[in-house]
Amino acid sequence: MTNTRIALALGLLIGIGAVHPASAGALYDNLGIEATTTPEVISADPLYASFSTGASSAVLTEVDLLLDVAQYAKSGTGLVTIGLYADATLAPGALLTTIANQVSETVSGSTVVDFFLSSGYDLTADTRYWIGVTSSTTSLNWDWNQNTGGTGVAGEYSYSDGVAYDNPGNGPFEMRIPVPEPATLALLGAGLAGLTMSRRRRI
Predict the structure, then answer these.
(1) Which positions ≥6 away from 110 have C-beta within 8 Å?
(2) What tens digit of pLDDT does each residue of 44-86 get?
(3) What is the pLDDT of residue 142?
(4) What is the pLDDT of residue 104?
(5) Which residues contact 167 (CB under 8 A, 6 or more apart)?
(6) pTM attached to this predicted model
């Protein structure tokens, strides 16, 4: 391997490391705020929370939710479906992609569960989306509070029982929508492009 290819490979690895969630931004994040209200039981009714992209597009790779066991159960597992939905005028619309199909771990108390997409989903700028949580079997809850603190929380909505509630009316539900920063995505792309060019020159 030539020095040029070694440098390109190192640059690519650095770019990949920079996209790790620890260095990512967030479109929505209120996980650091204590849940002080009675959580909603997911199996009672589909639950949804909205978030918006703002002026820049983004790539959705992960959704983190604060889940809790139902008050009548000491622990609970069950199939839970996490989905990304379009906005239909302050209500969840069409399903855009399924993020995860189940929670297999036993939850004790309140636990942040990370759901990863099998591939990133491109989010359009200046667009509202909804995260939906549905289940007919689980005893899990989705924790919420009545505080608009956190990133991207004010001006968004929660949705349950067929009704949209502006934050902090009947929410917001506790979640984090981390996204890679555009600069790190560009760095990763540049590394891939440079490595490809190096290979073509050798042919």
Answers:
(1) 35, 66, 67, 68, 143
(2) 678 999 999 989 899 999 999 988 876 555 556 677 889 999 9
(3) 86
(4) 56
(5) 148, 153, 154, 155, 156, 157, 158
(6) 0.75
Q: How far apart are CA 59 and CA 189, in angstroms?
A: 14
pLDDT tens, position by position, 184-195:
445 445 544 554
Buried b (16+ CB within 10 A) or exposed e, 113-137: bebebeeeeebeeeebbbbbbbbee
Residue 20: count of CB within 10 angstroms of its CB = 11
Measured CA distances, 80 to 6, 18, 65, 103, 173 (Å): 44, 31, 12, 6, 16
Q: What share of the chain is helix, strand, coil (3-state, %, to 5)?
A: 20, 45, 35
- Least Cα distance to 41 among 69, 75, 80 occurs for 69
Residue 7's pLDDT band (cuts 50, 70, 90): very low
| CB contact set of 175 (below 8 Å; sequence gap of 6+) | 28, 29, 30, 31, 49, 63, 64, 65, 66, 131
Greater model confidence, 176 or 33: 176
Q: Name the nearest CA neighbour of 132 among 44, 53, 42.
A: 42
Phi/psi at 197 (5° precision): -60, -40
* β 157-160/47-52 pair status: antiparallel
User: Which residues touch 201 (CB under 8 Å, ≥6 apart)?
Assistant: none
